[in-house]
Amino acid sequence: MASSAACAGFFFFDAEPLGKPSVATLHACALCAKRLERGSDIFMYRGDTPFCSEDCRHAQMQLDAVRARRAAAGRRQHVLVGNGRF
Ligand SMILES: [Zn+2]
After folding, report:
1. Where are the alpha helices (DSSP H) in 16-86?
2. Zinc finger regions typed FLZ-type: which residues (predicted)?
3. Cα 27 to chain center, whole Å?
């Protein structure tokens, strides 16, 4: 049960657009979509991505790090496969 919930969460993260958030999303946490009320603490990341808490921002940083590492690894793998085959 817990694992399926985690999967749903990751699907949600993957569904998030990588581009700039729209004006509307600036009023909600970019990670958990919690509404950011005026006057409440907002944790900004990358200049224009708001989060409701340090935890959410940190989680997004880790997701970005994983994504960047995966992208770099994928590029490297491509090169290795290319060198091995040709
Ligand atoms: Zn949040």
Report:
1. 54-85
2. 24-68
3. 17
Domain span at 39: 2-85
Q: What is the pTM of this model?
A: 0.56
- Calculate the alpha carbon distances from 30 to 8, 19, 34, 50, 56 in Å: 16, 12, 8, 6, 8
69 Cα: distance to centroid of ligand 1 (angstroms): 23
Average pLDDT over residues 28-45: 91
Number of domains within the chain: 1
* pLDDT surpassing 60 at residue 18: no
For residue range 63-77, what is the model confidence (pLDDT) as tens digits?
999 999 999 998 876
